[in-house]
TrEMBL record:
Disordered, as annotated region: 1-26
InterPro entries: B30.2/SPRY_sf, Neuralized, NHR_dom, SOCS_box, SOCS_box-like_dom_sf
Protein name as it appears in the record: Neuralized E3 ubiquitin protein ligase 2
SOCS box domain ranges (all copies): 250-285
Pro residues: compositionally biased ranges: 16-25
């Protein structure tokens, strides 16, 4: 395997020489109020507003997105989901801290941020003004199907949240796609990843509904295992993991894109002469 400092290997495509990362799962070590389902893909805070810290089961690969969708919200609390990375092995923690901020961060080697519209962006030295600007609106999925973050190219198809199929779903879907809804709205999709740099460090990026919020932290130790951190905090009650395709899209995904191009909105898929399973797949049900 090439060293992290080798710039040639940083952007190597997924393939035989660089296998796709395994499906993401939640770690069995988590906050006291979290319940993870048997599949390891859904985490729910069952009481209070705290003790909701979760981790990825395995360290992330460079360019691998740990992507969650907000499934349930809970009224009456102030605050939202928090997301980031840690170089701490969750299994080595004597106890999972009550909060990711500031408790887990204070243990060191942890970078976690509250998800907001104007997310923290760390400018590079010598280019403070250009990199402090807010990211531009993401292009339409069918116009630009890939999200490019530093040396990585990630299919945007599953990065963007979807409304439940209904009369106005085609309008709501556009709001998710344009990322104009609150970033922690129900069914929004939020992800975290790291991108190694030639000097042996890494930048952490947070993605909201297919839009890269820019580097949120720099200087992460790329040579150390980095686990994702998801704090199911306050008004965020339940999240589920979304699996991504890396490399070439699957035949299913390509067929779905072709079918979606031929209809006005997802409800119109019901009128097509297709098997029900394929219709549901095309509607993201």
């Amino acid at each position: 395997m090439a060293a992290v400092s080798d710039p040639v290997g940083l952007g190597a495509p997924w393939g035989p020489a660089r296998p796709e990362p395994p499906p993401t799962r939640f770690h069995p070590v988590h906050g006291a109020n979290i319940r993870v389902d048997l599949s390891g893909t859904r985490a729910t805070r069952v009481e209070s507003f705290a003790h909701g810290v979760c981790f990825s089961r395995e360290p992330l690969a460079p360019g691998q997105v740990f992507l969650v969708e907000i499934e349930e919200k809970e009224l009456g609390w102030c605050g939202h989901l928090r997301l980031g990375l840690t170089a701490l092995d969750p299994a080595s923690l004597a106890a999972v801290p009550e909060f990711s901020l500031p408790d887990l961060v204070s243990l060191g080697h942890t970078w976690v941020f509250a998800i907001t519209r104007h997310h923290n962006r760390v400018p590079r030295e010598g280019r403070p003004e250009a990199e402090a600007l807010a990211p531009s609106r993401p292009p339409a999925l069918l116009v630009e199907p890939y999200l490019c973050i530093e040396q990585f190219r990630i299919p945007r198809d599953r990065l963007v949240g979807r409304s439940r199929p209904g009369l106005y779903s085609h309008l709501l879907d556009q709001l998710y796609e344009l990322n104009v809804l609150p970033p922690t709205a129900r069914r929004s999709r939020l992800g975290v990843l790291f991108c190694p740099r030639p000097d042996g460090t890494a930048d952490m990026h947070i993605v909201i509904n297919g839009e890269d919020m820019g580097p949120s932290a720099r200087g992460l130790p790329a040579a150390q295992p980095l686990y994702a951190v998801v704090d199911v905090f306050a008004s965020t009650k339940s999240v589920r993991l979304i699996q991504l395709e890396y490399g070439l899209p699957s035949l299913q995904t390509l067929c779905r894109l072709v079918i979606q191009r031929s209809v006005v909105h997802r409800l119109a898929i019901d009128g097509l002469h297709l098997p029900k399973g394929l219709k549901d797949f095309c509607k993201y049900e």
